Amino acid sequence: MRNLILAAVAFLMIAPAQATTVSGVELEPQIQVQQQDLVLNGAGVRSKFFIDLYVGSLYLPAKSQAVDAILASEEVSAIRLNITSGMITSEKMTDAILEGFDNATNGNPGEMQQRIDDFIGVFNEEIVKGDQYTFNFIPGKGVVGFKNGEQKVIVDGDDFRVAMMKIWLGEKPAQKKLKQQMLGN
């Protein structure tokens, strides 16, 4: 019996990572940012009024549930949003992200306001079900934003990077359940 358990554990350790599916979205178990492999830390659904809006996923160099360590990390990370509803519009997403920045900065974005305004441009184009936004967080640089694999924006500054991560991982996240799911809980 012991040998069977050890064999099963060994198989699981060498078996290729399996894709995770959340709300019909197949999530990559691993992505690469700046030539660094990131693993899927966790993922969940952002919903409102019983409607699934998007799947949010967090990618880190190694799995972690320690929010403070994730925010302070000197390593690259990423958050990916897969749109699952046709109800999301550019205007609604812009409003939600602006509210997220407001919560992340306690209503005082200060010197970040112009960079927030520049970043919001990533949502100017029509948003349709199936769109994918990826935000690469690069310490010492800032945030690189993509829509459907096409780079749309670069915003400098660690303060911006941390504030943006707090939209999903901060004390007032977009949705508490989604935060917990992205942290792997």
Task: Explain what the structure shows.
Helix content is 33%, strand content 32%. Residues 1-16 have low confidence and may be disordered. The strands form two sheets. A seven-stranded antiparallel sheet has the order 3-4-5-6-7-8-9. Strands 1-2 form a two-stranded antiparallel sheet. It is globular, with a radius of gyration of 17 Å. It has six helices and nine strands. It has helices at residues 2-14, 67-72, 90-104, 113-120, 158-169, 176-182, and strands spanning 20-22, 25-27, 30-33, 36-48, 51-60, 77-83, 132-138, 142-147, 150-156. It has a single domain, classed as Chalcone isomerase. It has 185 residues and is α+β, with helices and mostly antiparallel strands.
Condensed summary:
The chain is of the alpha+beta class. It has helices at residues 2-14, 67-72, 90-104, 113-120, 158-169, 176-182, and strands at residues 20-22, 25-27, 30-33, 36-48, 51-60, 77-83, 132-138, 142-147, 150-156.
Strands, total number: 9
Helical content stands at: 25-40%
Structural class: alpha+beta
Task: Tell me the radius of gyration.
Answer: 17 Å
Distance between the termini: 31 Å
Under the CATH scheme, which class?
A: Alpha Beta
Q: Overall 3D geometry?
A: globular
Provide tags for this entry:
single chain; 185 residues; alpha+beta; Chalcone isomerase; two-stranded antiparallel ribbon; disordered N terminus; signal
Strand and helix layout:
Elements: H1 2-14, E1 20-22, E2 25-27, E3 30-33, E4 36-48, E5 51-60, H2 67-72, E6 77-83, H3 90-104, H4 113-120, E7 132-138, E8 142-147, E9 150-156, H5 158-169, H6 176-182
Antiparallel strand pairs: 1-2, 3-4, 4-5, 5-6, 6-7, 7-8, 8-9
Helix pairs in contact: 3-5
Domain Chalcone isomerase: 19-184
Pfam family, one: Chalcone_3
GO molecular function, one term: intramolecular lyase activity
